[in-house]
């Protein structure tokens, strides 16, 4: 008899399992979504060959994280160091490290910006030298 009731009891747990799965997935996606929303309108400006370009800050942080992850894989492939799970043989560093690298770059960027803003107050004429954003002209 218990074999006949098992599928029915599993069906009763299905809504609970779906809620648990959804909560876990939302928790895993919360940081990247909050990261992108927080940096939605910010941009990094850079110069290449005299031309000035603009890139969304979130994209730049993720790209830097990807290149650091690739460098980490090259380093482990060339035996500069090995992680404990690579002792039996080399394999790619887990993709989850991309988030770690992007977070490290974000934190570094924020700390340097805070130091530079304070440096303007401490060593300058007393006011922080922050460039105001350019105003866009309205099309008529």
Describe this structure in words.
This protein has 140 residues and is mainly α. It is built from three helices and two strands, in the order αββαα. Strands 1-2 form a two-stranded antiparallel sheet. A hairpin with a 2-residue loop joins β1 and β2. α2 crosses α3. It is extended, with a radius of gyration of 24 Å. The mean pLDDT is 77.
The value of Rg in angstroms is 24 Å
SS content category: mainly alpha
Low-confidence region ranges:
none
Separate helix tally? 3
Largest sheet: number of strands, sense, barrel closure = 2 strands, antiparallel
Helix content: 55-70%
Strand content: 5-15%
Cross-sheet strand order for the largest sheet: 1-2
**What is the general shape?**
extended
Oligomer: single chain
Helix/strand order:
HEEHH
Residue-averaged pLDDT: 77
Number of E-state strands: 2
- Separation of termini? 79 Å
What's the layout of helices and strands?
Blueprint: H1 2-38, E1 43-48, E2 51-56, H2 57-77, H3 97-123
Antiparallel strand pairs: 1-2
Helix pairs in contact: 2-3
What features would you highlight for this structure?
140 residues, mainly alpha, two-stranded antiparallel ribbon, extended
In short:
The protein is mainly alpha-helical and 140 residues long. The protein has 3 helices and 2 strands.
């Amino acid at each position: 008899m218990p074999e006949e009731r098992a599928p029915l009891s599993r069906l009763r747990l299905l809504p609970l399992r779906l809620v648990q799965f959804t909560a876990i997935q939302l928790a895993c996606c919360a940081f990247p979504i909050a990261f992108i929303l927080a940096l939605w309108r910010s941009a990094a400006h850079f110069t290449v060959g005299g031309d000035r370009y603009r890139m969304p800050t979130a994209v730049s942080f993720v790209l830097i994280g990807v290149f650091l992850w690739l460098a980490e894989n090259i380093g482990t492939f060339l035996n500069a160091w090995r992680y404990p799970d690579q002792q039996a043989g080399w394999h790619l560093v887990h993709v989850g490290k991309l988030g770690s690298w992007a977070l490290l770059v974000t934190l570094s960027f924020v700390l340097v910006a805070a130091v530079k803003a304070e440096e303007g107050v401490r060593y300058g004429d007393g006011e922080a030298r922050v460039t105001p954003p350019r105003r866009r002209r309205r099309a008529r």
